[in-house]
Amino acid sequence: MEATEAALLARARAGDSDAFGELVKRHSRGVFAVAFRVTGNEHDAEDVVQETFIKAYRQLGRFEERARFSTWLTRIAANCAVDLLRSRSNREPANGETEMGGAASEACPCLAPLPDRAALGGEVRERIQVAMAELTAMERAAFVLRHFEGESIEVISAELGLKASATKHSIFRAVRKMRAALEPFVRPAAAPRGSAGSSGNRPVFAKRADV
User: Fold this and answer.
1) pTM value?
2) 73 in a domain, yes or no?
């Protein structure tokens, strides 16, 4: 019978490395997904995954069981990813280093209104790749935690060491950049000027993006 997560956590806290190894197996894919979305490439994501589980093992005593273990790991991963990106802020990515692609495009909430996603998928992924690469480390982490992981502004602020207003601004800037990159794909066909439903010069996106 498969051990419950609570049982594995209890054993891991008692020093059972095999139990922690099982937790790593169960959660490594989710941690990698977060790390990849924030860092933008597979190699860095793998480094973040390793660092995340090292920190998690060392900090098991601080984990509060009322929270979900996966959520706790996500927050550690986001912080590790931000630290890595900040440490490399002066380094230009090599050609092909940024690999944001299918995983991001499938989960990105900005893609919901796209027409004929299958036909436009390749070009959309390329636009997302470029837009994500232009986000700062903090914008990317805040955006991922909010729109991929569904975290609250309060939780994101606490985990990234930001005030709530700064968190909202980071997410707003990230959403604005993503929408700008994807605008050609969501702009409706132009209606005759003055006809019902014509938007005139009204922008496709709201003036203020929801955070």
Assistant:
1) 0.69
2) yes
